[in-house]
Please model this.
Amino acid sequence: MGDVLIDFDVPGEMRDGTVLRADVFRPTRDGPWPVLLVRSPYGKQDPNIFRILEPLAAVRRGYMVVLQDTRGRSGSGGDWEPLTNERADGHDTVRWAAALPGSNGLVGMYGPSYLGNAQWMAAAGGPPELRAIVPGFTWSEPFDGLFGRGGAIELGLSASWSLSQGPDLLARRWKDSPADLHRELTALVSEIDALATRTYWELPSGAFPAFERAGVPDLGYQRALADPEAAADCRVAGTYDRVDVPVFNVGGWFDVFLQGTLDNHIAMIAAGRPSTLLIGPWSHQGQSGRQGEVNFGVAADEASIDLRASLGDLRLDWLDRRLKPGRPATPDGRPVRIFVTGVNRWRDEDAWPLARSVDTPLYLHEDGGLSSEAPRAGERPDTYRYDPADPVITLGGPLLMSDEFPPGPYDQRRVEERPDVLVYTGEPLDADLEVTGRVRVSLVASSTAPSTDWVARLCDVGVDAVSRNLTDGIVRVSGVPGEPAEHEIDLWSIGHVFLEGHRIRVQITSSNFPRWDRNLNTGEPAEAATVMSVADQTVFHDAVRASKIVLPVVPPEDPAR
Model:
């Protein structure tokens, strides 16, 4: 192919003798060249890999590119256990790639999601040839976005992802029997096609019946329940002291792993490691300027970030400075770049979180009010009934689910009309208000159930009365029925300006299904619970039991705004 040579299915032997296969792209010009490595469970010729960082473009920039199938996937040998072998295999693959003909012995890695976690695990293994990683859209703590969130199961993600990985596994299992393979694939596809209407709804949610019927492994929730140490196989949190390479973290405000991306950056900086952060107005599977119902503009698109460079070029520029010896040193610039929604513009920062953000409480009030004034004595609580047989259905947000549930910002008014959704709204703002950083809700509430969930959502209400979601969170609690308790709900982070005339709104409810599994209100563990109970929920907001949302407000007098 002109100035590119491609070798397909190149074998690399791991420490236990398992052979993994990779496609290797080389420049035809004299080297040696640094290596860019991708390790993927989705097939080394998956078009999404080519979209993330096009191998031919990288080769023309003076790189070798290695695209490898992970253990037990596509062309590679061994048995696939999701997220289990990436540290050892990643370490061995880096060393193998560094020794390929034409390599200069320096390796960088890139790729999002599972591919991003594979980079962290490889880096934690400490291969000396690895000099830089570019993980994107990946988690830190697996029970905060991957397996679960706030004690609830991340059902929307785990069910759709696990089932969608089944075809390759079934093709291996039935490789000698086309008729059996067709039968099993047909059954698997029927499970996937029915996710929204049937499969997500099946119980028990913690022992998802469809996985056994389809013959596919769970992403990891069930394995982690059976063996808590299994989560360590993919936990980035706690590995930072072993990751001694520069990191370029990329994420999106509407990504299911947003907070993990931010936490990874924060922890690396705290550990004294070099880290760069880029957060766009993006979701997990799309980095265009349009997300949900909102068009953030051409400059928000990954192809033309701030009308200056594509995301692919930014990655390669960053890698050039770390993998090409003798190249004239050029500065990285400020280490943090975020897209501020509302005003829809990019901004560079010296650090995340912003030191100038000030935690500012807004209190919930009776009659649906939301203000900076603390509640008065005698304010009456609000009540609703939560029936897990009739949950609040997921509408937008930082999602990775079946196609019926697209991510991003959506008009929430039909959700807010439900009797089991409490709505608290502030007065129209008399000036723009920037909220950038981590958002949390402190909720004083009680339930007639021994165990229940509390869900909080932050919305921006425009002058047209449209209420669009910005971020949300959930916490699963247990306690004495009827006894008030304070619950902290982590809503993760935003970078947003509420414009003059807009209003801040908070929703409180007890479900967001099927993104998160339903709490059946009985106290039984999710892996066994099948019986539902209706709960009466009470939210307090008086002088003694104040409920509030805490917003990281950027003062308007700051000259950077």
Q: What stands out?
A: The radius of gyration is 24 Å.
